[in-house]
Specification:
The protein is mainly α. The protein has helices spanning about 1-20, 35-45, 55-60, 85-100, 110-120, 125-145, and strands spanning about 65-70, 70-75.
């Protein structure tokens, strides 16, 4: 058991070193550690092969598919296309963003407020999570493209009248 724990520790150190060489700063997003950041980089690959965050969302299976003809149709969840490993990583990351701590505070208040807004609009919890995943795709795309640090957006509060 000790041997396996030492091996895991050495692999994690090597992973941190290799990730640092890439220059990405995805671990600055709340809920992302080095292992998750490495998983995102591994599943996305070279970010420059995607010309827009919409193409990355389609690759991840987060973009809706439109079925229709003659101006009629509907959008459905993309269940069969895309990188399912990237989708599951984004799904758990979205869960982390709306997660409430033991004190009842949101880990990321902006995403929690957005989630609650989508629920109040009549979306299911899964649909609201997919909306958050789309937002995360845009943030991750920009961060990987420009190699910048994540800045937590300011939550706009509605003043009571």
């Amino acid at each position: 058991m000790r041997f396996i724990l030492r091996e895991i520790e050495s692999i994690e150190q090597l992973e941190k070193k290799m990730y640092a060489e890439l220059g990405y700063q995805l671990e600055t997003i709340p809920g992302i550690n080095t292992v998750t950041a490495c998983a995102l980089v591994a599943h996305v690959g070279d970010i420059h092969r995607f010309t827009s965050p919409h193409k990355l969302a389609n690759y991840a299976g987060v973009a809706p598919l439109h079925f229709g003809s003659a101006g009629k149709g509907k959008d459905v969840q993309n269940k069969s296309q895309g990188n399912r490993h990237l989708y599951s990583t984004l799904y758990f990351l979205a869960i982390q963003q709306i997660y409430l701590t033991n004190k009842g505070e949101a880990r990321n208040p902006v995403y929690r407020a957005y989630f609650e807004k989508k629920i109040s609009e009549g979306k299911t919890k899964i649909q609201a999570l997919i909306c958050i995943m789309r937002k995360l795709i845009r943030v991750i795309y920009a961060m990987m493209k420009k190699k910048v640090v994540y800045e937590l957006p300011v939550l706009k509060t509605v003043a009571a009248s």
